[in-house]
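Help wanted!
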Amino acid sequence: MEEMTARLKEQIKTSTGAVESMTEKLQSSEAKTAFLALESDHGALKDKLKSTEGTLSERDALIVQLKAKLEENAALIAELESKIREEEMVRRKLHNTIQELKGNIRVFCRVRPLLGNELQDGKKTEDVITHMKLPDSNSGKEIELMQVQESANGKSVTKTYPFNFDMVFPGSTTQSVIFEEISQLVQSALDGYPVCIFAYGQTGSGKTYTMEGPDNLDESNMGMIPRAVHQIFATAAQLKEKGWEYEMEGQFVEIYNESVHDLLGNARWRDTVMHSGADMRILFWRHTTVILDTPGKVTALLKKASQNRAVAATMCNERSSRSHSVFTLRLKGRNRITLETSEGLLNLIDLAGSERLSASGATGERLKETQAINKSLSSLGDVIAALANKDAHIPYRNSKLTYLLQNSLGGNSKTLMFVNISPLPESFQETLCSLRFATKVNSCHIGTARRVVK
Ligand SMILES: Nc1ncnc2c1ncn2[C@@H]1O[C@H](COP(=O)(O)OP(=O)(O)OP(=O)(O)O)[C@@H](O)[C@H]1O
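Answered by r_m:
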């Protein structure tokens, strides 16, 4: 026991010695420095933590603020969107009122310019066009024809034939200026109205140029059809913001010798049997329909149609189109916000030349064509006269053309007619006939167009 106590005592002594030596070491300046450094680091970290905590709570407050602002902005956007939709509705109503005030069948008279060989021997336009008084600017409405006649006592007297239309465009008017005047009508088709624009006039007076453009088509001389289609695509894209989405379908048919041909089908002359009554309308809509979701598809459609179009020679114009061509664009709109739907229709019609039989010098097959053209155009005149007289019976069924245009002339649609005229003195009688026909059309009140919306 004593021995064990002594051993333990010895052990305690040894460890006390070790503790003393360790304490001594700890108190040495090296350890002290390390300790102080650690203490300072610790303090710095504590400060950093405190400042980070401060920044974090500041950020939290900012996030709350931003969230509130975001909600405020979202409410503002919703309010503005609904305002835009309301304004769009007001715009549509106002636009329609303006169109109605302008009258439903409007007539624009367009005089084509003199072409290359018509201005020979250094002649100026005013040297050739001596039988016509035209407006100087593009905003005129009057045109006067003048003809020198011999009176009963042998004296020369100048007889004048004044005409007034919604617009009269002299030969210098560009395609884009003319389109500006009809772009409102094209807009109406997107708004859900049936719209019909047709070109009437003698062969070579510029109908195809006006509706489609010349053969060497470029941006500047594009006709009303490609311009209308471009505008429709551009406006439909803008209306997307207001919730409107559109589906577009196109058809192109031709009425030749009183039968209807599909200009988009594969068969060049796919003939349709003459049906009477309601069947006939169904037949029209059985023709090829192309979904038009890109402007490129429209260009391809117009190209195909023009390739298929019947072209034959007559004495009046070597590339004379002897048929009526009818381009139809159906525009189905749906507003994904208001769930409103609309169904507009745009008919763009290039009528066959209106020249009289005697002037065309036609015989044989050409004579038959001219008779068919004259029949349908005179049916058009009869329909318009019956509408102007407010007759109980309107003879739409007398020709394919008037049957096709039934909805466009019968008061349900907005209609515009171009009367294209030649500037040549030798076309005086044809021009007079065309202007008289156009005056009859212009005086025709067909009632108020109805928008197709659900
Ligand atoms: N405003 C114009 N500017 C320049 N050239 C024109 C204009 N209008 C017509 N032309 C030219 O006059 C010629 C006859 O025009 P266009 O073929 O359009 O007549 P049209 O009335 O359609 O004849 P058709 O009844 O035979 O179809 C064409 O060469 C055309 O390019």
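OP: Thanks! One thing I noticed: The two ends are 115 Å apart (CA to CA).
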